[in-house]
């Protein structure tokens, strides 16, 4: 039948009707079949297969002499024999499998690539899994050296470098802008002499950025901006490639600051550029190494949290170096913040909770670009969305998108999920937690964990249970439990991964910002916070269009003159809102 189906395609309508149709099953037919069965049973010992014979003999050997005397060559006896034989055969197979399993090596050691996927899953994607015993000791206490003799780094396990290199190679295929920058500017080395100290997420995508900066002539030292987001295999690959990396997944707060300090306080090496994500590195240098801070040529910051800190320094007159605000550039706001979060919010929630979104009542705190992306994704899967917002413009946008705008206190009792994306502090407080229903999921899509008041939850009356990596159940005395993800830190990079392509947009913007600050003539940038020139945003966008085989229309001279702009851009004024 399968062959006939294959011959005619996927349709069954043209199959020929069978020549024989079975008759209805009646009592007379049942008696006839019983007689035929009894006659056929006489020859069953001859007609059965050799395999069945061996199974029957194995079952017979397990009988006692008393059982043999009682056994009769009847139909019932044969059925019992076959059942015993099948049971025995299954037992033999299980025993063989157990013996084969016991032969496997038990010592922890280097594993082939095909066996290392589960480890990468535990390290990079926050899946349920165990870490080998060789990785249990703190990285600071382990002697580490690359194959080329580099010792100025601190990671989890340098033996994972080969696997991390493959992850970086895969990410490169989805990051066209950085590859084009390497090709076009690699010979000129626009960052020759630059010493970049960075504090970002250490993933395969940021590794492509770091190696691009090195290819453009920069010396780099790197730490992680999030204690959960580091992909250990990627960190190992960077170290093997000659980059001084100080990061591993699951750092403590003390480890986090220790890694930042090791990046900055290197012997005979002083940074002149900062690439920061969250402002922790900038703040550390500003407070602990003020003389070094004053020598910097510039700071590039990509998060809303870090930008707040820079504007505060500028307002107080304490920002003594120019800084580039990448977070508010068009290529970061309209692509990374929207599209990256739109896809990765679902990935992070699914990997950690396996939750079904249809019909769930979800509260999204903040309707900026990140909030818009999260709401679009969740709404598309059938969730009922509520938004909390302080800005009337963003609130009106939510209303026009068909989303109910409400305060968190009004809806908290009915919420199945609360997602913060404000960049603020104390958005979800203990009062809100006490009023949540049991099973409510709480997570954060902003950079910092300040949005959720965790300090109020660390009391003796509340019990914390770690049920999965980055998944905690907080249990109240009455048995109510709230699910907290990633301890309130950035969900998508702590519990999942993000698309390489959309990060290519942000990474290219960061690279161009560093090149601009490093090569700018004296006096172009003063001690303040600047946005990237509009022309750079357009250039970054143009580098990604070939991936879609997109063809941009070119203005005629008359059209350009009519609009009062250059036919090559920039096409929008700086005040334009995309």
Automatic annotation (TrEMBL):
Residues 1-83, 128-149 are annotated as: Disordered. One of its GO terms (biological process) is S-adenosylmethionine cycle. GO terms for cellular component: cytosol. Residues 337-498 form the S-adenosyl-L-homocysteine hydrolase NAD binding domain. SUPFAM superfamilies: Formate/glycerate dehydrogenase catalytic domain-like (SSF52283), NAD(P)-binding Rossmann-fold domains (SSF51735). InterPro entries: Adenosylhomocyst_ase-like_sf, Adenosylhomocysteinase-like, Ado_hCys_hydrolase_NAD-bd, NAD(P)-bd_dom_sf, S-Ado-L-homoCys_hydrolase_CS. Keywords: NAD, One-carbon metabolism. Its cofactor is NAD(+). PROSITE patterns: ADOHCYASE_1 (PS00738), ADOHCYASE_2 (PS00739). Residues 138-149 have a biased composition (Polar residues). Residues 29-38 have a biased composition (Acidic residues). Residues 57-83 have a biased composition (Basic and acidic residues). The keyword Zinc does not apply. The keyword NAD applies. Pfam families: AdoHcyase, AdoHcyase_NAD. Belongs to the adenosylhomocysteinase family. This is S-adenosylhomocysteine hydrolase-like protein 1. It comes from Xiphophorus maculatus.
């Amino acid at each position: 039948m399968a062959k006939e189906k294959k011959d005619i395609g996927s349709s069954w309508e043209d199959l020929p009707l069978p020549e024989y149709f079975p008759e209805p099953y009646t009592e007379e037919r049942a008696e006839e079949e019983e007689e035929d069965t009894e006659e056929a049973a006489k020859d069953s010992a001859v007609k059965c297969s050799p395999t069945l014979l061996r199974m029957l003999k194995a079952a017979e050997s397990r009988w006692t002499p008393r059982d043999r005397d009682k056994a009769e060559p009847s139909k019932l006896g044969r059925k019992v024999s076959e059942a015993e034989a099948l049971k025995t055969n299954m037992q033999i197979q299980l025993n063989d499998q157990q013996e084969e399993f016991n032969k496997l090596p038990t010592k922890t050691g280097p594993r082939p690539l095909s066996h290392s996927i589960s480890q990468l899953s535990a390290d990079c994607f926050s899946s349920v899994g165990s870490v080998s015993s060789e990785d249990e000791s703190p990285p600071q206490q382990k002697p580490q050296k690359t194959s080329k003799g580099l010792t100025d780094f601190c990671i989890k396990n340098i033996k994972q470098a080969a696997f991390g290199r493959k992850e970086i190679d895969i990410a490169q295929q989805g990051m066209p802008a950085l590859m084009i920058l390497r090709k076009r500017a690699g010979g000129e080395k626009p960052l020759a002499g630059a010493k970049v100290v960075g504090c970002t997420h250490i993933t395969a995508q940021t590794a492509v950025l770091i190696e691009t900066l090195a290819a453009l002539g920069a010396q780099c030292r790197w730490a992680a901006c999030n204690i959960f987001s580091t992909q250990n295999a990627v960190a190992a690959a960077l170290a093997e490639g000659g980059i001084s990396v100080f990061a591993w997944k699951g750092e403590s707060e003390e480890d986090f600051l220790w890694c930042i300090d090791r990046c900055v306080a290197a012997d005979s090496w002083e940074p002149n550029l900062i690439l920061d994500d969250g402002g922790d590195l900038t703040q550390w240098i500003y407070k602990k190494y003020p003389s070094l801070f004053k020598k910097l040529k510039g700071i590039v910051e990509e998060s809303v949290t870090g930008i707040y800190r820079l504007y505060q320094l500028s307002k107080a007159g304490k920002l003594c170096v120019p800084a580039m605000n990448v977070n508010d550039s068009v290529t970061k706001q309209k692509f990374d913040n929207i599209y990256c979060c739109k896809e990765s919010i679902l990935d992070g929630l699914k990997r950690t909770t396996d939750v079904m979104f249809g019909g769930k009542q979800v509260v999204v705190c903040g309707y900026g670009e990140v909030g818009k992306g999260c709401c679009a994704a969740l709404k598309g899967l059938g969730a009922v969305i509520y938004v909390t917002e302080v800005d009337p413009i963003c609130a009106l946008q939510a209303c026009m998108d068909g989303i109910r705008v409400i305060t968190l206190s009004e809806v908290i009792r009915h919420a199945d999920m609360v997602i913060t994306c404000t960049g603020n502090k104390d958005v979800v407080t203990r009062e809100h937690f006490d009023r949540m229903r049991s099973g409510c999921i709480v997570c954060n899509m902003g950079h910092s964990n300040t949005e959720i008041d965790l300090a109020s939850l660390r009391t003796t009356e509340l019990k914390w249970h770690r049920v999965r990596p980055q998944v905690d159940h907080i249990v109240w005395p009455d048995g109510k439990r709230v699910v907290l993800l990633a301890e309130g830190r950035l969900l998508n990079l702590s519990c999942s991964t993000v698309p390489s392509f959309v990060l290519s947009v942000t990474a290219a913007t960061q690279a161009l910002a560093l090149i601009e600050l490093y090569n700018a003539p004296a006096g172009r940038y003063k001690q303040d916070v600047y946005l990237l020139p509009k022309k750079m945003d357009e250039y970054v966008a143009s580098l990604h269009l070939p991936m879609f085989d997109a063809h941009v229309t070119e203005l005629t001279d008359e059209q350009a003159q009519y609009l009062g702009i250059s036919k090559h851009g920039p096409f929008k004024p700086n005040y334009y809102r995309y």
